[in-house]
Amino acid sequence: MVGQPTSSLERLFYINYNRLNSTPTSIQLHQIISEQTIEIKNQANIVSLEPLSVIKGLNSLTIIGSQIADLSPVASLSELTEIQCNQVPLNDISPLSQLSKLEKINLENTRITDIKALVNLTSTRVLNISGTQVKSLNDIENLTKLEELIISNTQVKSLKGVESLPDLKSLKCFNTKISEKNVEKFKSSKPNCEVVYY
Questions:
Q1: pLDDT by residue (tens digit) across 137-153?
Q2: pLDDT confidence bin for 156, thresholds 50/70/90
Q3: Which pTM value belongs to this model?
Q4: SS3 146
Q5: What is the rounded CA–CA span in Å between residue 36 and residue 27?
Q6: Between β-strands 170-172 and 104-106, what pairing exists: parallel, antiparallel or unpaired?
Q7: What digits encode the pLDDT tens for the residues 45-94?
Q8: How far is CA 24 from CA 3, 39, 77, 87, in A?
């Protein structure tokens, strides 16, 4: 079909700039390589992030409702400060472990089972793991800049380590395995932290 993008990079460009009615020119492709924000929303036909590996200045990546299960191509995107992966079949977040500039991490409704790969990302201010299979917040105390933590709709049983987060301002922990007693103890130790629990 005339005007349909042919390469993976052109397809990503096409999705980002769906106003185009023809294959992107080399100038337009250069523009995407200079992009700082990419959003891939409800694009079931995109299954790989490989084309993103050339966008070295990328700051923000949003992936919602796609079939992307591999974050390996983003491992080299050292300028990334925000990543949002929602409603994707993702279970391995180890490619994020070296992205030291990440400040906002949203992995809501993915298949992840632990956050071990994130515990050294000390620039993280917001972490959302709601709707995942995570059961433990081991080593979360390393995330000393964390201001907002969302663990609702998980199997998390304890707030161990969370109470030692000095900058935490918001905790959403409803529909978890955490006891009311544990939450009340946390509220007493962190009176300036807004807690949503029921």
A1: 988 999 999 999 999 99
A2: very high
A3: 0.85
A4: coil
A5: 16
A6: unpaired
A7: 888 888 888 888 999 999 999 899 999 999 999 999 999 999 999 999 99
A8: 9, 18, 23, 29
HEC secondary structure over 92-138: CCHHHCCCCCCCEEECCCCCCCCCHHHCCCCCCCEEECCCCCCCCCC
- Amino acid occupying residue 182: N
CB 164 within 8 A of CB 145: no
End-to-end CA distance of the chain: 53
Q: Encoding tokens for residue 174?
A: 């409803």
- Per-residue confidence (pLDDT) for residue 48, from 0 to 100: 87
Phi-psi region of 131 (alpha: psi -120 to 50; beta: other; left: phi over 0): left
> Angle at Cα 159 formed by Cα 186 and Cα 83, nearest 5°?
115
DSSP-based three-state secondary structure for 74: helix
CA distance 4 to 91: 32
